[in-house]
Structure prediction request, 403 residues.
Amino acid sequence: MKTSRVARETAKIGRNLEVQTRRHTRSFAASVNAFTAPDAVGSSVERESDSDGGSSLSSLVSSQLSDIEDALAPSSARKRKRGNATSGTTVTATSTVEVSTRTTPRKANIKTEDGTLARIRKGRKQPAKKVKNETGDVDIHPPENWEEIYSAVEEMRKRVLAPVDTMGCEALAEDTRTPRDRRFQTLIALMLSSQTKDTTTALAIRRLQTELPPPGFTLEGIIDVEPVRLNELIHAVGFHNNKTRYIKATVQILVEKFNSEIPDTIEGLISLPGVGPKMAYLCMSAAWGRDEGIGVDVHVHRITNLWGWHKTTQPEQTRASLEAWLPREKWHEINHLLVGFGQTICLPVGRKCEDCTLSTRGLCPGAVASKKTTVKKQKNTKEAIDESGKMTKEEMLVKQEVV
Prediction:
């Protein structure tokens, strides 16, 4: 059946009006719900219903408010109910037996030597300062409290024996050897100590001293030993493959360029493969007895930055900063002092600030109280229904370390 153009346009206008009315009604209903109290809205709707029972607006508002209330209903009311546990279903119940607590880091009480309680106090960073003098030159003023810190660390080191005290590179050479052989053993010990603990280095040196065939652990003995056998003897140290190549290359250089003796200059020592500035300065001090610089390893670099004496990112920067103001008579001992301190108290991970005098006296800017570790026990019960329909229970005690 054909319809006229006027009828089609009239129907189109009607549809548009219907959509606009519906959109207007929804926004109106939302406004009513947002700004009008529920009681007032209800009474208003009732009045409109009473006055005009056939009002489409009243019915639309009521339906929209009903939908909003359904949308805001508690989620639990809309969740579908789950059926009873079927075969193979496992239910886990957890009950806490013991709950741990956390200590407040900067308010922890610690015991001092006389048995009294003290609190850990953070110190203030007091770095070395550059000051221009009257002539325009730059003078380096040391940290104000460096002597107090240094003497306190010396006292703490006297009370605790560190691995470096008995197994450091300076103490590993055989006393029965000639001075030349002792210097050579000190150089090899320093080369092996890179990225290796003192205890492991000492074991490797001991194997070289006892298991190498005659003439033993000497320059000539290392020349004669096969690289494979040398690698087996030093296998425990870090990067032993590279160090085997470095040692074999070093003994050839010593024979060809240094008359079978270790170099007596920093430049000569650094020219050897695998020897850096730290090893060179330590070797000059331990083997030749000359303090031409400070041997800065990870402990010296880390601890002096922790104290705020300087702000450096590389060990060589730390060495230059320390040598600018530290008295020369302490250049040799500071490495041994801080290495032992870093091995026993100021550890790289888990510093024992509660055992450190600097913490109680407010001298260390990095002082913190160690976190108390307790064990949290949880009793887990697993319930399962087997194929026959019987309920089975299994209890497990789970321990978890928390801080």
About this structure: Residues 353 and 367 are 6 Å apart (CA to CA).
